[in-house]
């Protein structure tokens, strides 16, 4: 009987395995098709200067339109990384974001747009070419494009990363270290890295006012950035008191649901117009 149960368990186990392997294969082929058919869209979340209260930028965040619903990047970027689909997908993001920068500029909306790069994209020897090509084709100025890369991607073989970052910066782009504070940055390397900005991780921002340690970390990151001559941006700002705290702490820029969630480009332009109008009325 025990043997029989074992056999059953084995059968269920392999059926489970098969089911999840099939789901994965199915998702991979749907993702492949979506990349080919461009069933992808960039949403934009505003970035606001705490000094002027103006919108100075936007972060481009990828969504996949699949069967009438939106799938967020956390649910497909890892698979895109594993399968290499991230390379054509990332190229499309670059082209789409630079095109949007140009379109907004022509409409009088001057913003610095940030795009996210994953590990494999960052190590792609053709990244520089793709960026130059996207800038040329769109006519977007290089200094309106910002690249966000996480600490772990940068710290993993730091010498090579420093070289790549230097090359990207020499193209005129700004480099931001995303989710800063959650990885294991070597301060010695950080000092030598050609970077422009720390993006303080959402987890610290959301604990402001609740955990003294998070306040201490946020203050320390802002001080470190200052002394290295770098800017700071806080992500995931959801409340007025978080915003006020960051303002007192000397953080440069903020983004989060307190201002707006990520929006399709047309909605973003409408939001921008409303926000700018209200803001100018107050001046
Ligand atoms: P990230 O770069 O750290 O982006 C911030 C995430 O926080 C976004 O999630 C954004 O929608 C969310 N967020 C912004 N403000 C708030 C807030 O006030 N509260 C809360 N709870 N969340 C907020 P999203 O769009 O799901 O993106 C997740 C991650 O996927 C990104 O994290 C980024 O690492 C990656 N990603 C997004 N777009 C791309 C892309 O085009 N290429 C690559 N390689 N990765 C991407
Ligand atoms: Mg980011
Ligand atoms: Mg982040
Ligand atoms: Mg993140």
TrEMBL record:
<protein>
    <recommendedName>
        <fullName>cyclic-guanylate-specific phosphodiesterase</fullName>
    </recommendedName>
</protein>
<feature type="domain" description="EAL">
    <location>
        <begin position="24"/>
        <end position="276"/>
    </location>
</feature>
């Amino acid at each position: 009987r025990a043997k029989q149960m074992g056999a059953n368990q084995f059968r269920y186990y392999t059926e489970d395995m098969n089911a999840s392997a099939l789901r994965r294969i199915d998702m991979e082929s749907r993702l492949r098709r979506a990349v080919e058919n461009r069933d992808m869209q960039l949403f934009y979340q505003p970035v606001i200067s705490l000094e002027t209260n103006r919108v100075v930028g936007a972060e481009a965040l990828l969504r996949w339109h699949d069967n009438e619903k939106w799938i967020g990047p956390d649910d497909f970027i890892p698979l895109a990384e594993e399968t290499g689909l991230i390379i054509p997908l990332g190229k499309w993001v670059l082209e789409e974001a630079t095109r949007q920068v140009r379109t907004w500029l022509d409409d009088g909306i001057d913003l610095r747009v940030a795009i996210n790069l994953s590990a494999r994209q960052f190590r792609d020897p053709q990244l520089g070419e793709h960026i130059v090509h996207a800038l040329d084709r769109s006519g977007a100025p290089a200094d309106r494009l910002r690249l966000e890369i996480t600490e772990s991607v940068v710290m993993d073989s730091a010498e090579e990363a420093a070289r790549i970052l230097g090359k990207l910066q020499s193209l005129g782009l700004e480099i931001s270290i995303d989710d800063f504070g959650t990885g294991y940055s070597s301060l010695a390397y950080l000092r030598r890295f050609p970077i422009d900005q720390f993006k303080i991780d959402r987890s610290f921002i959301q604990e402001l006012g609740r955990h003294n340690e998070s306040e201490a970390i946020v203050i320390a990151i802002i001080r470190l950035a200052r002394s290295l001559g770098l800017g700071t941006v806080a992500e995931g700002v959801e409340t007025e008191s978080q915003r006020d705290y960051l303002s007192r702490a000397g953080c440069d820029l903020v983004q989060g649901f307190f201002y707006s969630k990520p929006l399709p480009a047309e909605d973003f332009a409408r939001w921008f117009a409303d926000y700018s109008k209200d803001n100018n009325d107050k001046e």
